[in-house]
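Aim 2 progress update. The chain analyzed this quarter is reproduced below.
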Amino acid sequence: MKPFIGVTCSMEVDRSYYMTKNDNIKAIINAGGIPVILPFLSQNTDIEQIAKRIDGLYATGGYDIDPTLFGEEPHQKLGTIIPERDFFEIELTKKMLSMDKPILGICRGSQIINLAAGGDMYQDIYAQINDHVLQHTQNSPRDHGSHFVNVRKTSLLHQITNKKKIKVNSFHHQANRSVPKEFQISGVANDGVIEAIESKHHSFVLGVQWHPESMTDEVSMNIYKNFISACNCL
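Predicted structure tokens:
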């Protein structure tokens, strides 16, 4: 039996649902999972039922996250936010963490994992980090690796990639800032921006700031294969 993977989708300000990239669906299918696109529910009992029924959660990229959720006022550079999505994804992630079910977060999804666990984030890395910041919104094809990420040796990400340095694509202006003690930073760009986080206590909880679904290299494929493998172990 293939595992059922709950996939978060996107929503426009007019409340219409959409999937940002079909690459997300194909990545799950190609790795051996069955993707199930999730609507944004508001009742905790409904969200708990979803958490119980899916074998893994795949939190995709998308719009910005409401900064009031981590105690900040909106920065001038804050982009579009969708409150329904923020609430649903954070609550579902909390329930998945409590059940120790596998989670893979991509870009925004990595930030959702961090916030659900008690961390915080930069609303805009270019305005809020004083040091020189790399180009994190690349002007090149989506499948092109535009900068490097240094991988922590004692990490799940290192086990998956078997590399000290990987090349990734980049399409973000927000990023994780403070990571809770139950998590570790497993990947960092050369400018110090956090590129990957993971749980130190759960079976498989990994968030990456880049978009491996849009790449075809071995590292990207292994991220999905290991995620689906963890979902199969339930």
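The longest helix spans residues 83-98. The mean pLDDT is 96. These observations will guide the mutagenesis experiments scheduled for the next reporting period.
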